[in-house]
């Protein structure tokens, strides 16, 4: 019998909070059971295993993150304005919710991604922003990967205090977004090479 008051949604929300507090890698079924004052076995009526729980955290966090990004870009001018709002919302979520954000970086079964309204919305918002730069496939996918790498790398370094130079971190972020905007405006054509 499932314990009264425990639901999959409640467990996942608590696990996401635990991830933010202690770190995503420290989320275990035992730690979650302790939080609710129950035995580990009580959780198996709601989640299959630890991987299932972590996947659910990833999907929850992905939905929260794209909601924040979509709200930030709504009504913005295409181009630098939208890119800046998108990037700012991404960074704010990553820094405010480190455990949830870490969950968004794990591999998730593609069938779950396809079935997730939040993941489809992520693709719609992200690709929509980049189409305003005149990009089409395969450049769209390449640009998504570039932006994700840039945003993730910056947030990962910032979160650990790795930027030690006296230059203001926000100022560097703003310049990085300016540079990405210029790059997207001047995206190289397929097969373009640059002599150095």
3D architecture notes:
This is Transcriptional regulator. Helices cover 66% and strands 0% of the residues. It contains 9 helices and no strands. It has helices at residues 8-22, 29-36, 50-73, 80-96, 98-103, 110-115, 117-131, 139-159, 169-185. It is globular.
Question: What topology does this entry show?
Answer:
Layout (H helix, E strand, L loop, with lengths): L7 H15 L6 H8 L13 H24 L6 H17 L1 H6 L6 H6 L1 H15 L7 H21 L9 H17 L11
Using brief descriptors, characterize the structure shown.
196 residues; mainly alpha; 9 helices; globular
Topology, number of strands: 0
Distance N to C terminus: 68 Å
Reported for the largest beta sheet, the result is: none
Look at the helices and sheets and give the structural class.
mainly alpha
Separate helix tally: 9
Inertia-based shape? globular
User: In terms of per-residue confidence, which ranges show pLDDT below 50 for 5 or more consecutive residues?
Assistant: none
Rounded to an integer in angstroms, the radius of gyration calculated over CA atoms is: 19 Å
User: Percent range for helical residues?
Assistant: 55-70%
- The helix/strand order is HHHHHHHHH
Strand content: under 5%
Mean pLDDT: 93
Domain HTH tetR-type: 5-65
DNA-binding region: 28-47
Pfam family, one: TetR_C_33
Organism: Streptomyces djakartensis
């Amino acid at each position: 019998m499932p314990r009264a008051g425990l639901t999959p949604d409640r467990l996942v929300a608590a696990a996401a909070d635990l991830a933010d507090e202690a770190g995503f890698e420290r989320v275990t079924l035992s730690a979650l059971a302790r939080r609710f004052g129950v035995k580990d076995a009580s959780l198996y009526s709601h989640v299959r295993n630890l991987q299932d729980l972590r996947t659910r955290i990833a999907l929850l966090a992905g939905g929260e993150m794209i909601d924040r990004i979509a709200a930030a870009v709504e009504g913005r001018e295409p181009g630098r304005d939208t890119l800046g709002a998108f990037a700012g919302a991404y960074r704010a979520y990553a820094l405010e919710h480190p455990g949830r954000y870490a969950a968004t970086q794990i591999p998730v079964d593609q069938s779950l991604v396809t079935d997730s309204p939040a993941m489809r919305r992520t693709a719609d918002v992200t690709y929509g922003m980049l189409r305003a730069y005149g990009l089409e496939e395969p450049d769209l996918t390449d640009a998504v990967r570039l932006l994700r790498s840039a945003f993730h790398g910056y947030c990962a370094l910032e979160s650990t205090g790795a930027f030690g130079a006296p230059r203001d971190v926000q100022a560097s972020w703003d310049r990085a977004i300016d540079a990405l905007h210029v790059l997207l405006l001047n995206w190289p054509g397929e097969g373009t090479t640059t002599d150095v």
